[in-house]
Design goal:
This protein has 529 residues and is of the alpha+beta class. Among the domains are: 109-183 and 202-245 and 267-272, no CATH class; 275-377, Winged helix-like DNA-binding domain superfamily/Winged helix DNA-binding domain (Arc Repressor Mutant, subunit A, Orthogonal Bundle), CATH 1.10.10. It contains 25 helices and 15 strands. The protein has helices at 4-18, 20-32, 37-44, 48-60, 89-94, 98-108, 111-123, 128-142, 151-164, 184-191, 193-202, 205-213, 217-220, 230-241, 245-257, 274-293, 296-309, 326-334, 344-353, 371-381, 407-418, 420-432, 438-445, 452-461, 487-525; strands at 35-36, 64-69, 84-87, 126-127, 168-170, 175-178, 269-272, 324-325, 359-361, 364-367, 385-388, 393-396, 436-437, 466-472, 478-484. A four-stranded mixed β-sheet has the order 1-3-2-6. Strands 4-7-5 form a three-stranded antiparallel β-sheet. Strands 8-10-9 form a three-stranded antiparallel β-sheet. The longest helix has 39 residues, at 487-525. The two termini are 51 Å apart.
């Protein structure tokens, strides 16, 4: 969801990282949606060279994706549509989380893996050759000639680790080609009008573009290249040895079908996989909530289930992972030091605490964890993070960074900003879910009738409530005010306030750093003062 202050925050980040020209191009894409190069030049009043350079920078750092629309009858039957550029708002915000991503990798791998990821985050996209050159430059600073010979092997090994953990991936194609839009009549004949409408609403243009640009799943986390060099052959051997039997067989068959012309040098770019990092942060939030709400054993079982199902998840916010057999869950629990003391009955009891009922799959019991339910409980329990905005303090859940607002969080915001009377009225309207007249709200919540309209009007003015006027004609015309909570609009409003708070904090940090630089400069010029 891109809000007013969300755009301002994104532009602020782009200005700090890449300068005003790049930020201006990014701002127009955020405000107007996908645009062609010609339109961006017209809207920004920049030169074509400036716009082209800015787009290349944004693409390099995974903040923009190019795409074109396939013409009716295919690209060969008609002229190719102009290339459009779409900004990736979430990827811009991920730049604020780079330190968290590095912390995750440093907890699982050594310092060299962390440094490799740091290079991917810093430069956006790198080839294997560029990673090796970067590592060699670091070695030269240490003046260690002994390590130069094994530098390539170290980089390859570390990249394989990141790819195996899905912390790194191959970059998407530089320009995705979307299929021609299907006409309403054709879709209605095949699936029905209602089904077509649901599909159209459920899939956004961003999801379609990213899906078309993404490499095949078999290649996405593969390091194998077709360069024909010794390095590539060695990497292929290492990668093949790490595959399962079925995967290796598929790879061998592809190698046999490969034409000699395909042995030309291939430039493969790699980048950090933001989706995997966000999945890990989301899972961590759920595990911590279960540990607090239930016990350590339950959190161990949940972590084992999430780890076992991780490779099978198709999207970041999977609400219900694939069912796992009890034996599979128990084997994954036994892999951790804390889980080795648990019995099979204890694991089964923890699954019952989650509300998982066993289902029959052959002769084994199978369980599927309801992540959506855990997320909702986490949202209701965790309201501890204090977010400072203009004239208020909002308590929101840490899990909000990856999830949506819960009703309890919204009520907590109203309580802390407007007081207990406003909280009771907002809670009533939230539970009722329909329009309620002013006097009825006052009577139900025991709020003075002279104060109720003022409080409700204040909540309406700040976009927390929706108001409708009802005029009753008769001998004496009467007017009634009806109120209700518009949750989608309210969530957008509160999210916008969070972006505003983050923008204010970021601007304050930049201001304080600038003051430190000025103070240091004055100290150097006037040491006696």
């Amino acid at each position: 969801m891109v809000t007013q202050y969300g755009i301002k925050l994104a532009v602020h980040l782009m200005t700090n990282h890449f300068g005003n020209v790049v930020a201006k191009v990014c701002e127009n894409l955020l405000q107007r949606g996908p645009l062609t190069l010609q339109l961006i030049v017209q809207l920004t009043e920049l030169t074509p060279q400036q716009v082209t350079s800015s787009l290349l920078i944004l693409i390099q750092h995974n903040c923009v994706q190019a795409f074109s629309l396939e013409q009716q009858g295919g690209l060969e039957d008609g002229p190719k549509a102009d290339t459009q550029y779409m900004v990736l708002f979430s990827n811009i915000l991920h730049r604020m989380r780079f330190s968290k991503f590095l912390k995750i990798v440093s907890g699982e791998f050594d310092e060299e893996c962390k440094e490799l990821l740091h290079g991917l985050l810093q430069h956006g996209r790198l080839t294997l050759k560029q990673m090796v050159e970067r590592a060699k430059n670091m070695i030269e600073r240490e003046k260690s000639s002994k390590r130069e010979g094994i530098c390539e092997d170290i980089v390859q090994e570390n990249l394989l680790k990141l790819l195996a953990a899905r912390y790194a991936e191959r970059c998407p194609t530089h320009e995705a080609v979307l299929a021609a839009p299907v006409t309403e009549e054709t879709t209605a004949k095949k699936r029905g009008a209602k089904s077509a409408k649901r599909n159209e609403e459920s899939v956004t243009i961003e999801q379609r573009v990213l899906g078309a640009a993404a490499p095949m799943e078999a290649q996405r986390f593969s390091i194998i290249t077709n360069t024909g060099s010794n390095v590539s052959r060695e990497i292929s051997t290492n990668a093949s040895s790490s595959m399962s039997v079925g995967e290796k067989r598929k790879y061998d068959s592809l190698e046999l079908d490969r034409e000699p012309a395909a042995e030309e040098e291939e430039v493969v770019l790699f980048r950090a996989n933001f989706e995997e990092f966000m999945r890990r942060l989301r899972h961590k939030a759920c595990i911590e909530n279960v540990r607090t709400r239930l016990d350590d054993g339950s959190s161990i079982v949940l972590r084992a289930m999430l780890e076992a199902a991780r490779s099978l998840e198709k999207k970041v916010k999977t609400e219900k992972p694939v069912p796992l057999s009890l034996n599979t869950i128990f084997e994954e629990v036994m892999k951790s030091e804390e889980g080795r003391g648990m019995t099979l009955d204890r694991v089964r009891a923890s699954l019952a605490q989650f509300g998982c009922s066993p289902s029959a799959r052959g002769t084994d019991e199978s369980y599927s964890i309801d992540l959506k339910k855990i997320v909702e409980l986490a949202q209701n329990d965790e309201v501890s993070l204090t977010l400072v905005s203009k004239d208020m303090k909002i308590h929101v859940s840490v899990t909000k960074r990856c999830l949506t607002f819960s009703t309890l969080q919204l009520e907590s915001i109203v309580l802390k900003r407007y007081g207990r009377d406003a909280y009771r009225m907002f809670r009533l309207l939230s539970k009722t879910g329909r329009l309620v007249e002013t006097d009825k709200i006052s009577d139900t919540t025991f709020v003075e009738k002279k104060d109720a309209p003022k409080i409700l009007y204040k909540l309406w003015k700040d976009e927390y409530l929706h108001m409708e006027k009802l005029v009753v004609a008769g001998a004496r015309q009467s007017q009634f005010l009806l109120w209700k909570v518009n949750k989608p609009s309210l969530q957008e409003h509160v999210l916008d306030e969070m972006f505003r708070a983050a923008l204010n904090l970021s601007q304050r940090v930049a201001y304080e750093r600038e003051k430190e630089k000025e103070f240091a400069k004055r100290t150097v010029l006037c040491p006696n003062n």
